[in-house]
């Protein structure tokens, strides 16, 4: 995969967390959906503008719409639905309407496989999903056996795209760790660095491992490396005190914003004010209930999307998303939005028709995905390699005065 060569600049409004635009604008985030989805008997949520009896292309989606990770799944669901509505209104995929069916997996691998089987019984011909890494890996194993095309908007683990039928829109965990260390080193943000990571989470561990390797190349000294687990993610006092005692000028936080909010609060409690630097899971920290935004002042993190960009496509996406769903789109919504447009482009490139089997569609799209380039809301000239990885560049976002801003 092409290395990220630079970090872009812009301004960023309050958003949630992890899209792109091809053609028309519009997008949605993880807020409660006002879409015209309907509940099916199987508990799925489907969205289709195709008329009864018309030939359609059936695209499935899987992600958490309930439970602790629902903010990510709802963002993906809404972003994808917005793209489907736009594409259908514009004539569909090669003149064929899309029927979209999104299933809740509650961020659970077993339930994700069950959701996949429900979608397969429904007649799914391609899959946008899953949203989180562990369920994505589990579903990926089954999808590979079925030769079902899979494009995950936000599954960052390396294993999410280990098979030739799988692609992703987001950045992988190792790439985030690598580029975070490079940015810190090349911009001389610090020389003494501490890391706090979730050793029970593949996302956090994967980023940390790549970060630690590249830190050596950048001349960064890891003065403290402290782990926590899903069972101990509310009290970070020990980890922070060790980082402070070791003289860490920067603390790298490769995990999600809910835990990061606690870290920042507890750091303030011991008067520890290093630079805090995170990854794409940090997007959304300003929306945590009861969180004092001033504690996130100068927090930095990688992100593929900024909703305050002045680019026309992104402005349209944000405007349409806010109108449809009442909230600002985050990077998950943007990745899903771009994902649906990528599926459209690849299907049209491959000459997919509604009567093709899922396996035949997958065979055609494996090559087509490496031949398309789309302008989206997460990247311009977004393309894919045969290994399933996207080719695009990230941004570094810095929180200033209770808002997001992108820095060089």
Describe this structure in words.
This protein is an alpha/beta fold. It has helices spanning 70-89, 109-122, 133-146, 173-186, 202-217, 237-245, 257-269, 312-325, 331-350, 358-368; strands at residues 10-12, 38-39, 45-48, 56-63, 97-104, 126-128, 150-152, 166-168, 192-198, 221-228, 250-253, 275-278, 300-303, 373-374, 382-384, 390-391, 395-400, 403-407. The strands form three sheets. An eight-stranded mixed β-sheet has the order 1-18-17-13-12-11-9-10, with helices on both faces. Helix 1 (70-89) packs across helix 9.
What tags apply to this protein structure?
disordered N terminus; 2 domains; eight-stranded mixed β-sheet; 19% strand; Rossmann fold; elongated; seven-stranded mixed β-sheet; alpha/beta; 10 helices; 408 residues
CATH class assignment of the largest domain: Alpha Beta
Q: If you average the pLDDT, what whole number results?
A: 87
Instruction: Indicate the radius of gyration in whole angstroms.
Output: 20 Å
Order of helices and strands: EEEEHEHEHEEHEHEHEHEEHHHEEEEE
Note the gap between the termini: 22 Å
Q: How many beta strands in the DSSP annotation? A: 18
**Largest sheet entry:** 8 strands, mixed
Helix count? Answer: 10
The assigned structural class equals: alpha/beta
The name of the CATH superfamily of the largest domain reads Response regulator
How many domain modules? 2
